[in-house]
């Protein structure tokens, strides 16, 4: 499946975003785009840089995810709001289905399970918690439509960047600006770290030297 919203980014946006990471991009963005920090990778080293496909699940009900796997464009990450209800919405079976469908990751404010299997398959999942509790399949409140996840707006095609530091969601219209600003910030920090290695002080480099006498 294709989606016009998913062609709004430069072809190399994923590589650029991964190289910069969520922290640098968040600082460079100036936007309220950080998902609740309690939404964490379920295995160390997981990372995502891909367009979002939003879903809303009723608490303890994962039907929307099953439908979303059939509708989401290949190359997308499912961004699932559950109202912060932690249950085992996602596990190894859905991971296998996602791999076949070309889905590249999951961000969910609920829970996941089968963590050892997810880690072995290297499928990136970011969740609020881990839970053995199963889910029903009875309702699908929203599929592929703009929504909020932990108070952060997400629309189809928005850029999701997730790694060990956290999860951010950048609007399509801001993605190129933020990537460019992030690259400038990374270059500035690299120059600063080089000067630090040569013996410079963070107080001097950050214009904080007055605190030497006032603290």
UniProtKB/TrEMBL annotation:
Mg(2+) binds at residue 114. The keyword Mitochondrion does not apply. Pfam families: RraA-like. Its cofactor is Mg(2+). InterPro entries: RraA/RraA-like (IPR005493), RraA/RraA-like_sf (IPR036704). Keywords: Magnesium, Metal-binding. Substrate binds at residues 91-94, 113. One of its GO terms (molecular function) is metal ion binding. Gene3D superfamilies: Ribonuclease E inhibitor RraA/RraA-like. This is 4-hydroxy-4-methyl-2-oxoglutarate aldolase.
């Amino acid at each position: 499946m294709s989606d016009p919203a998913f062609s709004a980014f430069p072809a190399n946006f994923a590589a650029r975003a991964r190289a910069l990471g969520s922290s640098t991009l968040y600082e460079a963005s100036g936007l309220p785009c950080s998902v609740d920090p309690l939404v964490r990778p379920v295995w160390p080293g997981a990372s995502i840089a891909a367009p979002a496909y939003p879903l809303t699940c009723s608490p303890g009900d994962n039907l929307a995810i099953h439908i979303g796997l059939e509708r989401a464009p290949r190359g997308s990450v499912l961004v699932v709001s559950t109202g912060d209800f932690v249950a085992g919405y996602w596990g190894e079976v859905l991971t296998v289905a996602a791999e076949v469908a070309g889905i590249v990751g999951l961000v969910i404010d609920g829970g996941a399970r089968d963590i050892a299997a997810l880690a072995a398959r290297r499928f990136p999942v970011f969740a609020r918690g881990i839970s053995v509790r199963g889910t029903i399949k009875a309702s699908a409140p929203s599929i592929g439509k703009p929504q909020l996840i932990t108070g952060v707006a997400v629309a189809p095609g928005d850029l999701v960047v997730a790694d060990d530091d956290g999860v951010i969601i950048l609007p399509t219209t801001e993605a190129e600006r933020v990537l460019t600003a992030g690259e400038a910030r990374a270059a500035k920090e690299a120059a600063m770290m080089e000067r630090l290695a040569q013996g410079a002080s963070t107080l001097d480099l950050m214009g904080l030297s007055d605190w030497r006498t006032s603290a």
